[in-house]
């Protein structure tokens, strides 16, 4: 009996993944690609290079879904056990696949290398499995049919090599053509990014939209001061129907969140925030400069990840030392009286930057990123961010960020971008109040 591949379990193997040395980006890649094909990933399993654990996990996974996709453990070392695990699962012996051996030999010949016994090991497959060609490396993938024990009969198990540069082309060329997709099942997804509203308040404003049994299903994640809504609509109709359902959910979110919702699209929240502010300024032929102290150029770095940033972003200055802040135009008296981490200094950095850089908007950041350097009056995490823009009042805000040095620096930069976002949307200085802002 064959069954459509409507849901899948994703398995990643490798000691480096289980001990946290390596992030499982292969699992993320499979999940995203499967979703776009209308296949719902229902579980991710991460297992070490241990034969018994692998066999057990594969057996359990095959009983959960008609499709199991796995990465890693196909190489030539003794720690690569995927082949043996699949053979144990299907009760097959390992046999040499002549065509796979030829492909490995050809790949090695291109690199001027001989075929060793270890390399040849990779051409063995469980007797009833098939090898999947690897255009980018020597380890072939595997495809096996496994008695699932579930109501749908057999499960298709695909095993791909760990390196992403080998796995991705093999997924496209070897796995996708072998999938039995349900043409009447369509999944449409969208990410919407939100700033300036705490997660609990956002959920409250969204109301029924976030109900767990709703379709579209709307989930929220918070990261570094930005919330991301994941909208997922499922239908048995046309793709346009699923897209329309997502459109409706997005429209409803925009209605209740107003300017807090700043962008839609793949990528991280801060990347989208940079893209949004740069796009708005470019449309208006306005320019931005930055003057950074504790973020040491991070804000400029973030802005320049956006292709075409130069249409609005001119650059900036890293004024880490007080002497450099003074040479920019911050008054020595202000530094002495209020200290480098103060609203006054942030304000003068922004206004001096506006003139010196000749821009329409200038963001300035000065703070205590830690782990040392905090005091009772200015604990670690105290950061002042100021935004000077031509023709409007200076917006200077104080934040008390939590987290480690990296968190504090990133949250500082994101808060500056949020201030700019709201200014560009016509909100007055200090409005709306941001997360971590203190008076
Ligand atoms: P190889 O032929 O290179 O040995 P393999 O199938 O044996 O392939 P592994 O040895 O498990 O793969 O992993 C090889 C490399 O692939 C890892 O060092 C890592 O760089 C990358 N990799 C493995 N698993 C993952 C994963 N889950 N996410 C991202 N990268 C991974």
Question: What's the short story on this structure?
Answer:
By secondary structure, the protein is an alpha/beta fold. The protein has helices at 15-18, 25-36, 51-62, 82-90, 98-110, 117-121, 164-175, 199-206, 239-257, 269-283, 298-303, 322-328, 332-338, 343-357, 405-424; strands spanning 7-13, 40-47, 67-71, 94-96, 124-126, 130-132, 141-147, 154-160, 186-195, 217-223, 226-235, 261-264, 288-292, 313-318, 361-367, 382-389, 395-400, 437-438.
Observed structural traits:
six-stranded mixed sheet; alpha/beta; binds adenosine-5'-triphosphate; 439 residues; 15 helices; single chain
User: Strand percentage, roughly?
Assistant: 15-25%
Whole-number radius of gyration?
27 Å
Shape: elongated
Bound molecules: adenosine-5'-triphosphate
Total count of helical runs of at least 4 residues: 15
Describe this entry's structure for a reader.
The chain is an alpha/beta fold and 439 residues long. Helix content is 37%, strand content 25%. A six-stranded mixed sheet has the order 2-1-3-8-7-6, with helices on both faces. A six-stranded mixed sheet has the order 14-13-15-16-17-18, sandwiched between helices. It has a four-stranded antiparallel sheet with strand order 10-11-9-12. α2 (25-36) runs parallel beside α7, α3 packs across α4 and α10 runs parallel beside α15 (405-424). The longest helix has 20 residues, at 405-424. The N and C termini lie far apart (66 Å). Bound molecules: adenosine-5'-triphosphate. Adenosine-5'-triphosphate (ATP) is lined by residues 12, 14, 16-17, 22, 24-27, 71-75, 80, 137, 139, 161-164. Residues 12, 14, 16-17, 22, 24-27, 71-75, 80, 137, 139, 161-164 line the site of adenosine-5'-triphosphate.
